[in-house]
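Protocol step 4 of 6: structure prediction from sequence.
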Amino acid sequence: MGKFNKTGKRGMPALNTSSLPDLIFTLLFFFMIVTTMREVTLKVEFKVPTGTELEKLEKKSLVTFIYVGKPTEEFRKKLGSESRIQLNDSYAEISQIQDYITQERSSMKEQDQPFMTVSLKIDQETKMGIVTDIKQALRQAYALKINYSAQPRQ
């Protein structure tokens, strides 16, 4: 019975950290692949109204966004508090929408051009006259697939 000695104190074994850099690199690589960066800096505020239907977009690279809403705080002093249209990173007028759609369509591959979708992200307090003017400009630019962004009702 002398094989097991209970009087000796054992220390805690050292933690093996040799695989820790591999794990950290794997996590970093995963988040770099999964994360998407916002391409447009929003200069308008918008609170989308509740929607009744949802449509899943298949190829998000074929979506062109048009934002409509009140200017952010930093631009309100210059532009006022009326709703403004934002195309990419700048404010625009309704007359510029056709050129914008044409430019976006020409930057796509030829086989993807018929599948181009225009997504309107419009503040719920925006007057319908602006929305109607935007829709008319999109029709004239032959943007045939238009998606309205809204939150589903709960």
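Step 5 (inspection) to follow. Confidence is low (pLDDT under 50) at residues 150-154.
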